[in-house]
Design a protein that fits this description.
single chain; mainly alpha; 0% strand
Length: 124
């Protein structure tokens, strides 16, 4: 459980650092309300702040989903190596439960991010 806590803490720290760098990058590049803003030097389209935030959120949710899948696989490993002992199978069941909850939360959060992105980028 201690390694799971450390991995989760590292994930949050990396998400915050990467997110802050990307958001600052979007502001300094001049990504404003117009998504069709073209940079004169590179000829590339500059992303708006909402597009950057959506990318960061999707990236973080992908990592969280991947961690949840690894937790589910780890629970299967614990179950197979428990040898039928009640303590080992209970531990494996708890990991499985938390892994499935993590996948559900990541899927719901992905849906919310998509909804909010559509809400801000709709031109109606």
């Amino acid at each position: 459980m201690k390694i799971t806590y450390r991995l989760f803490s590292l994930l949050i720290l990396l998400t915050l650092v990467i997110g802050n760098v990307s958001l600052v990058d979007a502001v300094t590049l001049g990504g404003g309300a117009d998504p069709g803003n073209i940079d004169a030097q590179t000829g590339q389209t500059l992303e708006t702040l909402t597009q950057k935030a959506t990318k960061i959120a999707n990236y973080a949710l992908g990592i969280i989903g991947l961690i949840a899948v690894f937790i589910i696989l780890y629970s299967g490993f614990l179950f197979m190596t428990s040898g039928g002992e009640e303590e080992g199978t209970d531990k494996a069941k708890n990991y499985l439960k938390y892994g499935i909850i993590g996948l559900i939360v990541a899927a719901l959060a992905f849906s919310v991010v998509g909804f909010v992105d559509n809400l801000f980028t709709s031109t109606g």
